[in-house]
Amino acid sequence: MAVQVTIYLNEADQWRHRPLHMELLNYLRSENVYAATAIHAVAGFLGRQRVKTAHLADAGGKMPVIIIFVDTDEHVSRVLPMLKEMAAHRLIVRENVVLEQGNLD
Fold first, then answer.
1. Separation between Cα atoms, residue 89 and residue 9, nearest integer Å
2. Domain limits at 31?
3. Where are the beta strands (DSSP E) in 16-103?
C-alpha cells in the first residue's frame, strides 16, 4: 500500500519569500520522496473564493497549483509535519492508494 498526498495552493503562496510550490518540491526531493509533481491549473478555486481562470486579466498570481506526491506511509508520516508548517492554512489531503504499476523502490 502506498500513500498519496495532495496539497492545494495558489501560485502567489510563498515560503521564505520564494514560490511555495517550488519550495515544497525542493523539500520533497531533499527528503528522497519517491515521486512528486506540481500541476498549474487553468481554472479553479480555493476555499470559498470565486472561480479563477487563466483567461481572467485580473487572475494575478492566484491561479491554483496542486502538489501531488506518492510514497510509503512511513515516509509520508516523516515529511508531513514540515509540509504542514510550510503550507499552513492550505488544504492537505492524505489517502491510501493502490499502485497498479511500478513500485516505490
1. 10
2. 2-97
3. 18-19, 35-40, 43-44, 52-53, 64-71, 91-97
User: Is 104 domain-assigned?
Assistant: no
pLDDT in tens, the chain (105 residues): 799 999 999 889 999 999 999 999 999 999 999 999 999 887 777 777 778 776 654 455 678 899 999 999 999 999 999 999 999 999 999 999 999 998 888
What cell numbers appear for 62 in the block?
A: 492566484
Report the CATH number at residue 90.
Answer: 3.30.70.120
The answer to whether the pTM exceeds 0.85 is: yes
Contacts 24+ apart (CB under 8 A), 15-19: 15/86
| CB of 11 closer than 8 Å to CB of 88 | no
